[in-house]
Each structure stands twice: as structure tokens, then as C-alpha cells.
Write a sequence for this structure.
């Protein structure tokens, strides 16, 4: 064809049809939920499209093996944009009522720095848990980027965050879309992604889910004065190794702030520690009958 102006006739029809997507539910059938969503748009692109569904499949499989989950997990594989719009038209109202947090997973297979795009709210439970993971899980010296929500970039998070729904949905990525030269071209191939980067991204998402699962509010069952820990085997009778000194500190902070008001993240922040270091202390106090989950 020569360089000229051309008219294009699009000979199309509008007929009733269908839209395929994949959905699975993990954990409790009722109560608060966490959304894990990914999408397909350019299936030939390794990082921009394939890394998200692959990581989501592994993440869902891992969560399905955990007993006693606190949250129900709604896991979606959608066609980009039209899929999330169609899904919200059917399920948006129930998601507004039940969703505690959500994440859209894409661009997680390259070796770029961790990048988090906040939800439209900017301070949702999704944003707080992701920031907690980035602060305590990513090694010191590794670059981390945090972006405010931007309605002119990203993927399905734009639909979930649209003002009519305003769901608490963010997105943890590696290199930010449009800011790496392989974006949306043939160089986004299997040489650009790596198994290690995918694995690291998966672990980061698992840490986020662990943060949500552990961030409960507790009640000290013996709040009138400090309970006697020695006879319960919770207080050392001889010199304390630094490791056990930390564990004792966690016990005491859990008892002090297990007041039905402070969640675990608030307690952890007082010690500048991640929530997951409290696992052993929580188990010991609950086994001793000194700590329970607040109703």
C-alpha cells in the first residue's frame, strides 16, 4: 500500500455471546475475603502477561494447602478490562460488603525492584499489609518503589478501584509497566524473565497473605496485672539467650496490648518487627490459655 489516507470499513455484528473466565474460592465460604486477580491480554509476552497467571496459580495452590485460614480467597483469571468489568457487574455488590483487601498480579517475572501500586484509597488494608512486607521482608539495600494509584496506568485494578466500587485493591509488581524497555514488545520473552524472580515474587505475595492472616486482634484472658509466666514454662529460670530474650519481649507485648483494640500489626510496629516473628509467642500464650482471638 502506498502512503495515503484510507477509509476502513469494519463489517461487524453485535450478537449475544459469552465471556470465559476462571474463578476459584479458597478457605471459609463466608466472612471477610481477599481478592487475588490476574488477567490475560497479550499472551505472547512473558512478563507482562504470563508471569501473573503463573504466579497466581502457584499462590492459589499454596493457600489451598493451609488449614484454618482466616479469610476466604477469591482467585480470578480474567480477560483484561472487559473481564473485570463483566465480573464486577455480577459480583461487585457482594465484593463491596466482604472484601478486606485485594491484589492484581502482573509483571512479576523480571529482576527489577519491587514496585507497589496503592489502592485508590491509599491507606487500605491491602496497602498497609504490602508496605509491612516491603519494609521487613525485602533485604536492606534493595530498591523498593511505591506509587499512588493512577487511573491512567495499570490493569484491572483500575476497574476494581473505580469510584462506584472503590475496592481496596493494590498491585505488587517488579518493574513498573511502561518503565522497562521490554514492555509491550517482542523483547518481553522467556529470556527477560527468570525462575528466581518468579520465586521471589511468589514468596513476597505469600508474606503479604501471611500478614493478613496473622493480623488479628487479641485478648489477654488474665489482664488484671501480669500473669505468672514462670509456672507456665514461659519465663526463663536462668540467664536468657538473646533469641529467648526477644521471645520473652514478644510475650509481654502481646499480653500488654492484647486488649481487644490493638491488632498484631500495631503491636509489631511498637517493636519495629514483622508480624511473623510473633508466631511462636502467640502459640505459646494461646496454649497456656492466656491469649485468645477477640470476637
Amino acid at each position: 500500500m502506498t502512503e495515503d489516507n484510507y477509509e476502513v470499513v469494519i463489517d461487524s455484528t453485535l450478537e449475544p455471546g459469552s465471556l470465559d473466565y476462571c474463578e476459584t474460592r479458597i478457605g471459609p465460604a463466608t466472612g471477610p475475603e481477599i481478592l487475588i486477580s490476574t488477567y490475560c491480554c497479550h499472551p505472547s509476552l512473558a512478563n507482562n502477561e504470563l508471569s501473573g497467571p503463573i504466579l497466581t496459580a502457584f499462590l492459589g495452590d499454596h493457600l489451598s494447602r493451609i488449614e484454618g485460614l482466616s479469610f476466604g480467597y477469591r482467585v480470578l483469571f480474567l480477560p483484561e478490562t472487559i473481564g473485570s468489568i463483566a465480573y464486577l457487574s455480577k459480583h461487585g455488590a457482594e465484593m463491596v460488603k466482604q472484601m478486606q483487601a485485594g491484589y492484581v498480579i502482573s509483571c512479576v517475572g523480571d529482576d527489577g525492584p519491587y514496585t507497589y501500586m496503592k489502592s485508590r484509597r491509599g491507606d487500605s488494608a491491602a496497602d498497609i499489609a504490602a508496605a509491612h512486607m516491603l519494609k521487613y521482608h525485602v533485604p536492606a539495600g534493595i530498591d523498593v518503589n511505591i506509587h499512588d494509584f493512577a487511573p491512567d496506568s495499570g490493569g484491572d485494578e483500575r476497574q476494581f478501584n473505580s469510584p462506584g466500587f472503590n475496592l481496596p485493591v493494590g498491585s505488587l509488581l517488579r518493574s513498573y509497566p511502561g518503565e522497562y524497555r521490554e514492555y509491550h514488545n517482542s523483547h518481553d520473552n522467556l529470556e527477560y524473565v527468570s525462575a528466581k524472580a518468579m520465586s521471589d515474587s511468589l514468596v513476597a505475595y505469600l508474606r503479604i497473605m501471611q500478614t493478613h492472616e496473622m493480623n488479628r486482634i487479641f485478648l489477654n484472658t488474665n489482664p488484671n496485672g501480669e500473669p505468672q509466666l514462670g509456672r507456665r514454662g514461659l519465663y526463663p529460670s536462668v540467664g536468657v539467650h538473646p533469641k529467648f530474650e526477644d521471645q520473652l519481649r514478644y510475650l509481654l507485648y502481646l499480653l500488654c496490648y492484647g486488649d481487644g483494640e490493638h491488632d498484631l500489626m500495631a503491636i509489631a510496629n511498637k517493636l519495629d518487627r514483622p508480624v511473623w516473628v510473633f508466631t511462636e509467642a502467640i502459640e505459646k500464650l494461646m496454649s497456656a490459655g492466656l491469649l485468645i482471638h477477640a470476637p
Remarks:
- The first helix runs from residue 46 to 64.
- Residues 143 and 292 are 38 Å apart (CA to CA).
- The radius of gyration is 23 Å.
- Residues 22-214 form a domain with the Aminopeptidase fold (CATH 3.40.630.10).
